[in-house]
Amino acid sequence: MRGPLGAVIGRYPSSDGNTQMGGIIRHNRKCRDIVFLVIFIAFWVAMIVNSSFGFNQGNPLRLTYGLDYKGNVCGDKNAKPGLRQLELRYWPNPNQVYQSGLKGSEFKLANARSICLLDCPYASEDQLNWVCDYPEGDIHLSMDEWIDRNYDYYEFLTPEMRNSSLQLQGPCYPVIFPSVNVYWSCQYIARSSNISLRHWQQMGGVNINEDIIIDKTIHRSINSRSSVLKRYMADIGKAWPVLIVCGGFLPLFLSVIWLLMIRHFVAAMPWVTVALFNVLIVSVTMFYYLKAGWIGNNAISPIIGEHDQYVHIFGREIHHIRAVAVLMTFIMVVAVLTSIAIVRRILMATSVLKVAAKVIGEVQALIIFPIIPYTILAIFYMFWFSAALHLFSSGQVVQNDCNTNCCAYDLVSKRVNCDRCCGYSIHYTPHIGVAILFHLFGCYWATQFFIACSSTVIAGSVASYYWARGETSPEIPFLPVFSSMKRLMRYSLGSVALGSLIVSFVESIRFMLESIRRKLKVSSTTPHSYIGKAAFHSSRFCFRCIEWTIKSVNRNAYIMIAITGKSFCKASAIATELIINNILRIGRVNVIGDVILFLGKLCVSLSSALFAFLMLDTHRYRSAHNKISSPVFPVVVCWGLGYVVATLFFAVVEMSIDTIILSFCQDSEEHQGTAQYAPPLLIETLNDQNEMQRLTQGPH
């Protein structure tokens, strides 16, 4: 059994037997959970090493652009030859594209000859156009001159080269089919130009297959899962200004405004929060409907630039955004109905928020303090996102071993080369996947760690306020926020590292189990019996309950760490015992307050998502170089960043309420149901809302 917390919290007897107040929350502390602090530091070292591997091996251009026949990434200015602005990948040999699309064919599209161009070539109506290899050897043209000539130097070819070109072995290839820019790849339209084809046949060129397979083959490659995932990651890199504005500055501004409004307009804030939440979730859902093409004519399109209005191409992204729109519709309906259901209990939330408002009014530095962890997290996220883009694009460019006929004319050796003529691809080793998973886990652990540090500092500041009898006591340390920060840095970083590690570990296991569940669902191996289904879904529910319980216990453990300076496990035990003994006192008051705070966080994050939609809908992100494939990932990332920022700032209110209530319950237990150290303003607020009776009323 634990004893009274008075000696630890700040009320301990002096040598003459009198109780002194000079040691508020600063008595008898020492470093705790040092082993886990060492583990956390080692983890950061591993994160730096892991990220350096990505920076060394990765190239974010690979996420957007393809490889040419030399193994260069299109658009890479450091390639040989320089491919600056030559971002489009084009397959000049239509027969190779056709062959790669045949069922059972060993020849793959990755082995077909491809080249990087400024724009997709077009078939002329009065002559035969050509696309030739990069100028080298006896072709004395610069890259700029080659581009100005529309990639055509057929007139400079020797008879041997011309004969090779008529065999579709280069160095020049005829433009027979029109093509359209689909995500920086020129997709054939299986509708050949009659005039170009006639010219080709009159020149004695080999037969060219005109089947629709050439259209579907490239389309299938562009819409493969790996290609779509790469484009989603590239979208995050292209939309970095949106992430900074909508994921950084906007939630910072909105969170500070929300805290100030809680301070001055606390009675109206629950109503404003619920109403604003409903408006925002409906607005975000409508934007998804807009981009899904269900409202208006502003659906996302995989085609870049101007194109024939009769050409309609759909990518996998449109199906994803429609699925998200359906999901958002379901969430919107549930959220609106839930908000209606809690309307009658909003008055209780108002009384609880008044407690926090009074604390913020007395310890005003709490409003400004979250800017410190916000700045640290902002720097971390900039580093993390940059490293993530490089890790996802890391790998080694290797030439394929296709063992098929891919002969092509080599301008340097001046002959047709049938050796090592296969295409190039990026080879990903298993350790890259492990590095990416480690990087993702590191992001979550670091985020939880900084949020936990912020919560512990806030709890320590509020506890100082409570146990010093509120604003009437002269015993509050000068600038209690910075005193709490000092105690955290000196004694409790290891405990916070342990708590954040437990949350991250449990969340990671839940994520892996959810991934396994989805794979089983796809492979139709989920249990079919009622017992099996019940066990299957019950396990998911139980795991979510465990996750929620751990997060709740962690939050209260951080409060007890701030108050007592105990280790994480000891503080968790104290907090758990205190909660169990006062479950009715804490639960009835705090649940609705937590719901309002959660809705407030969602208001901030949904505002970030809404403004992200508006920014991504501008011309900058809908055409040419910066076009994003889909707004889904940037919007979701902005929503996530907005929620993290809101969590940092809303923790001021959340932790204030929890710390005050836990301290009040402990104070009541130590003094036979009468709180001796509750500040007068707290007692006044609780009496005004008739909450004192609820708090002190034990189970009958």
From TrEMBL:
Repressor among keywords = no
Q: For this UniProt entry, what's an example GO CC term?
A: plasma membrane
Q: Which GO terms describe its molecular function?
A: transmembrane transporter activity
Q: What does this protein do?
A: Choline transporter.
Q: Where does this one sit in the cell?
A: Cell membrane; Membrane
Query: In which family does this protein belong, per the annotation?
Result: Belongs to the CTL (choline transporter-like) family.
- Tell me where the transmembrane regions lie: 34-55, 239-262, 268-290, 323-343, 363-384, 449-468, 488-513, 595-616, 628-653
UniProt KW keywords: Glycoprotein, Membrane, Transmembrane, Transmembrane helix
Q: What is its main location?
A: membrane
**Name of the protein in its database record:** Choline transporter-like protein
Q: How does it sit in the membrane?
A: Multi-pass membrane protein
